[in-house]
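question for whoever is on the cluster today: can someone run the full assembly for these? two chains, 1432 residues total. i dont have access anymore since they changed the login thing
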Amino acid sequence: MVKEELSTENRPDNTAFTQQRLPAWQPILSAGIIIPGFVLIGLAFIGIGVALLVTSQSIQVMEIDYTGVDQGSPCFKCTDSTVSNCKCEIEFTIDKLFEGPVFFYYGLSNYFQNYRKYGASKDASQLSGDLDYFTSPATECDPYIKDNNDKPIVPCGSIANSMFNDSFVLSRLINGAKEVVPLDGKGISWWTDYNVKYRNPSITPLKNAFNGTVKPINWPRPAYELDTSDPANNGFINQDFLVWMRRAALPNFRKLYRRITEGNYADGLPAGDYSLEITYNYPVLSFDGRKKVVFSNVSWMGGKNEFLGIAYLVIGSLCVIMSIVMLIVYAKFKFPDED
Amino acid sequence: TRRTMEQLDSRTIYIGHRSCPASEAFIPPPKFCDNRIVSSKYTIWNFLPKNLFEQFRRIANFYFLIIFLVQVIVDTPTSPVTSGLPLFFVIIVTAIKQGYEDWLRHKADNEVNKYPVKVLEDGKPVDKDSEKIKVGDVVEVKENETFPCDLILLQSSRDDNTCFVTTASLDGESNHKTHYTVPDTEKDLDSLSATIECEQPQPDLYKFVGRMHIYKSNQEPAVRSLGPENLLLKGATLKNTQKILGVAVYTGMETKMALNYQGKSQKRSVVEKSINAFLLVYLCILLSKALVCTTLKYVFQNKPGQDEPWYNEKTQREKDTNLYLKMFTDFLSFMVLFNFIIPVSMYVTVEMQKFLGSFFIGWDKDFYDPEIKEGALVNTSDLNEELGQVEYVFTDKTGTLTQNNMEFIECCIDGFQYKYHDSSSELDGFGVTYGPMSKLQQKAGWEREELFLRALCLCHTVQVPSAPQEEKGFIASSPDEIALVKGAMRYGFTFMGLESKTMKILNKNDVEMYELLHVLNFDPVRRRMSVIVRTRSGDTLLFCKGADSSIFPRVKLEEVERIRMHVERSATEGYRTLCVAYKCLSAEEYEHADKGLKEARLALQDREEKLTAVYNQVETGMSLIGATAVEDRLQEEAAETMEALQGAGIKVWVLTGDKMETAKSTCYACRLFQRNTELLELTVRTLEERGRRREDRLHELLLEYHKKTVQDSPLAKTRYSSWSVGNQDYGFIVDGASLTMVLNSSSDSNTSHYKNLFLQICQNCTAVLCCRMAPLQKAQIVKLVKNSKGSPITLSIGDGANDVSMILEAHVGIGIKGKEGRQAVRNSDYAIPKLKHLKKLLLAHGHLYYVRIAHLVQYFFYKNLCFILPQFLYQFFCGYSQQPLYDAAYLTMYNICFTSMPILAYSLLEQHIGMEVLLCNATLYSDIAKNAMLRWPPFIYWTLLGVYHGLLFFFGVRLLFGNLALPDNGQVFGNWSYGTIVFTVLVFTVTLKLALDTRHWTWINHFVIWGSLAFYVLFSLFWGGIIWPFLSQQRLYFVFANMLSSVSTWLVMILLVLLSLLPEILLPVLRKPRGPHARQVQLKQTRTQTLYF
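^ ran it for u. tokens below:
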């Protein structure tokens, strides 16, 4: 900034800012920049697109709907809500090695986990282990604050109450004999949810913390007994519970159930026949929902998603085409810069 | 209300609060207001309620308050904080600003109110605060002090019972004005017993009527008339006088100064009207969105199983609520959810932009004038952008187009022309050589010459300052008079000054003395002034000078013929002409006149009219001596400025009180009229030719001109603006009298018809000259144009008190800090030192301001549309449950933090075309004419862009979420991840869109644009990185960081940002080969420069 002539008092400051003469870069989007720029972007996009598409193609996905709408399907018998502890079994075949690690998802359709009231219906303080909120859960949990005997529900609210409670046992059929595929239930929820956001009260045994409270109405077992096999996987940091509590964005969603990473199946599911034994508890037909299981492996770009690759290819080609069109236009009208 | 009936139109003041011994009963003096000046609006106590009330009277603030209240009362998707915080912020900022301004006013008030003054109590001066002065107090004022209230001058320390004041702070006239004590008042004020009866306070600074009754023991009360010459105004300063005593007549808020500072009308800019129109559209969008969602919600819930799925049971209260009430609250909830589409922050940003932006005008050193040592002044920042929209400029002539710096050029005595040759030397001053009047053809008689020069020396109100100064200076209210007196000086007649009614003239070496009997003051209606003097020999003479039109009817016809030619020739050369006449008054005549004048001066009612009548009666039967020609030089660069304005497509009209010939020559000199311009005259002269009735002739002329300019013009057919070359240019001249006929035609049907014809003629002429205009007529013209079809934006520029009316009337009023006082400046919206500054003010500043604010407004609507559209679309995927897509923090901070600074910086700094280029290419100005950037097509373009972006953001991410397993560890993302991805794309796109539009990247732009993006990223990491104890739900905990861990998310964000901006990048490239776009002009310019230099 230049300063000069301080003599007269009323004279405005002669600075670059006050005179609106700050040095400025004045970019002009000319054809000379845009056309090569577009070619470059286009080529880069095509490259990424090809990579994405190839990757996506290599990802294997298998979906099995087990809602049991058809009378012929094995789970049809369980759709009757009067039947309790219904189990059904679905058999399927894998033609070639399903490369590992294989991720085992369950999926729900037409299920609005993103209802506003539903989403708000939980008590974050309770879920972070604050015992004060065990006795008086937040009003957002309505209508699942207290049971008919006026005992507080922990964990309260609609989300917890509606937790997905089908369970699956996957077996490989080897010569007619079933070999149970070990399922890994760790690391299916966000690390931060498991370690920071959700906390159990620091009372051992955990059961004591729940004294005077009741389990959510739809739950078969209280929160401290969600995983009988692993005591550390109970309460609010039960992995299945955490996965459920992270609300899906859209009405058709899937959630990670287990990973197949152990034993003979660390490299994936070998080709062969498999049987999936389902403990069918979760009713979806009342609101015209569907249930499915999905086996998938993932790559650097996550799960299978053709959209990204195609979009990149289309945009990339579009850029290249546009630059050719522009070139023609400018050849006709002459480059204004070379006038 | 407290006053009785007879006191309604006048007030009675008891000097020194002494009751009068007169027979009439002592009426207890009614309470007048005290001398406290209150310009402040608030007190500490009423600030909060009053300010809040005023703020919520603004429709926008009220709307946001309603939204806030709905959020508090109804169970809505977003917390009241999201709309309460911005509203609170806006209200607080405005309140602080207004509070600060009011504090400044309080401070200024206090300074005035606590100013120490001396009030006479029992004959002794007592120190008091200024605010304690009451009406009737006798106040003592010393030299160089300002008067604390309006005073009637009772006593002066000067021998001649006069005092001098300057009213510089009132009307800017820095000359000394003489005021007179009330004649025959007692020297001893203690024993003075008198009342003053005067009119109720009124704002006219130059009018005052009153009467003073002086009661002396055992005598009939003497009555003295009081006029403005007896009244000392608050705010004026005492000069050249040691001290005076005066009685307070008007105090505090009733002083003329206070009355004058009130009631400046609020002007609103067209941009604001556009904003309101757009706002209405957005309000409709908002309402329809809410309506659509509410309807669909109930349609959706009608489907089996969807009203209340088992996993989302209703609460008891919901079940109990009435269906219609539920619908209504749902509607309100949707309103609240989408209300961000109408941003609170836009108002703040627009106000800030206007306020901060206006500094650039005051800061511009090109507006600095070293002569008056001042730069431009901004009185209102509301109209910055209007400067870029001006279609009509109405300019005053004297002092605006011309310098108002008069120089005596030539004179004419008895038809013989005398021209002064400056060639010899400046020493050729007074008295050294006699008779340097170089004879051009012949000389008039020696006696006539002397008479003429004496007339010039005597017929004026010029003062000679008492303090001897190095150069002989004169002080007068009109520069013409000084020019005339100086002119006479050159010829050997020097005016020495006026001392106790005696005028002294130094003629060669003799001193001539004249007794000044009466001054018949100048006024713009009579357009002349006279003095009556008595010579040593006892003759009574009347000298009169004035405009030819006012003198010629009052002198003998044969004398007129000799002089008229000269006057007209001088006028066509652009000189101001005055005619000088004289008359010998016989003793009876004088006595009659004297009586008449004195009577009229005493009149309490209609004094002006009575005086004028007497003046007219006295100023008859004179004999014409000669005429003078005074040159008023053009302002610097007046012609260039006018040319630039016309080049910019602005129509320039000259409105002047001057005579047609003079004004016409000024127009030629300013190149408003060119040599090939065909002049159409509608003046008294053309109306009276051919000896027809004026009305018929008017009709005929109007039709003829209309045919010429409108019907036959190729311009009319192509409907193109006026700067295309090759067409016949027309100039239109109209005078005040003809204008009156046009506007107030005898029959009503004609009036509107004539008005239309007149307007159409004017609009098709390149320049219009209106001469012989009274101040009110100037305003009438401006109003006529302002309200014509298409309501064009008008600008008035002037420097004198006679321009105030048109300055106030026009959309934008510009005052010139000229010589005719400060009234124009005070009433203007912007004040500049010189006419030449108008060019930069309009072409550069105005253009840039308009582009900046237009872009600001469009951008604001756009960015909020693409902000809220995804949230609207999300409703289709969440069962219309009013689930917000974005976290509350993002909803709140989007407009306040993430996207506000770049646009503010842009709207302050952008120069899409450089200032120099704008000044060189006046035609660029017409590119943005007629509110080009804020009309419906650009608005629709921006809206479509916003819709496109909104759709792209939502569905792009929707497609990405076709598979929820986005990170490479197979875990899934939830709804907040979805919203955060959309929001991130949104913030980046919207900011980069602005970056694309920015043509002028200073370091500030770089800083705020990249800074905002960095701030967004850092904030998101921080906001999601900590468990915030004050939040009930940690929705965003690690959502942003997790989002960044997914490659697919990165790729989709890059893709969407690029795809959104693609059309914006492509459009200018594809558009460029066609049409003379502004940008190309710049390119061409730089190219030609490189070619030729």
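summary bc i know u wont read the tokens: The two ends of chain A are 36 Å apart (CA to CA). The beta strands of chain A are 61-65, 86-94, 98-99, 102-109, 167-174, 177-180, 253-260, 268-269, 272-280, 290-296.
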